[in-house]
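Researcher: Sit down with what I've pasted below and flag anything odd:
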Amino acid sequence: MEQGKRQLKVSSLLQSELASVFRDKFRELIASSLVTVTMVRVTADLSLARVYLSVFGPNQAESKETVVHKLRQAKSAIRGELGHRIRNQLRVVPDLEFYLDDSLDYAEHIEKLLKEHNPSSK
C-alpha cells in the first residue's frame, strides 16, 4: 500500500534523525561497522516505524545480524534520544522496529551470477 504525504514526511524525518542518532550517540553499539538507514516505512496511524538498515564492514567476530540485534536491544534508548530531537515536529514518537536490509547484498550476488554466466561482458 502506498504511503500518504504525511507518512512520507514523517518517514523522511525519522530516516535523517535516526542516521544522526546512530552517528552521534550510539557509536559504541555499532563498533567498527557503518550503519546506514536505507528506508523508514511508517504505518498509517504513525504509531510504528519499520527501519531498514544496511550494515557494512562488521568485524569478523560480529555479524550484521548481531549489530541489528544490539540496536533492537537498545530500542528504548534510541527512541528516547529520537524523541528528544524531534519533539517539536511530532507529538508522539512511533515505536521502532529494526530490520536488516540486504538488498545491496542480493544485487551484488545477482551481478556476480550474471558475470559468471556471461564472462565476456564486464
Q: What stands out?
A: The chain has five helices and three strands. The mean pLDDT is 85. Strands lie at 34-42, 48-56, 95-100. Residues 83 and 93 are 6 Å apart (CA to CA).
